[in-house]
């Protein structure tokens, strides 16, 4: 990943970099991998994420 610093504005470049990393899900992944997760807990987490994505998709594509 590359972030350009324009006019020596490092603060803005850091903000952009952080936003890109968050969009890629890096922070969530780091938090998840911090400790060992049992396979059963991992499976429940995957199901929870799928349900969250499904709800998001449904709310986005509802037609009234």
Largest sheet report:
none
- What is the tally of beta strands? 0
SSE order: HHH
What share of the residues lie within helices? Answer: over 70%
Number of helices: 3
**Mean pLDDT, all residues:** 92
Low-pLDDT parts are: none
Shape: flat
Indicate the structural class: mainly alpha
Radius of gyration: 17 Å
Distance linking N and C termini: 40 Å
What percent of residues are in strands? under 5%
How would you sum up this structure, described in words?
The structure is a single chain. With 64 residues, this protein is mainly α. Helices cover 70% and strands 0% of the residues. It has 3 helices and no strands. The radius of gyration is 17 Å and the shape is flat.
Summarize the structure.
With 64 residues, the protein is mainly α. It has helices spanning 10-24, 26-33, 39-60. The longest helix is centred in the C-terminal third of the chain and has 22 residues, at 39-60.
List the helices and strands and how they pair.
Elements: H1 10-24, H2 26-33, H3 39-60
Biased composition (Basic residues): 53-64
Family: Belongs to the bacterial ribosomal protein bS21 family.
GO biological process, one term: translation
Q: What are the main properties of this structure?
A:
flat; Ribosomal_bS21_sf; ribosomal protein; mainly alpha; 3 helices; structural constituent of ribosome; Ribosomal_bS21; Small ribosomal subunit protein bS21; 64 residues
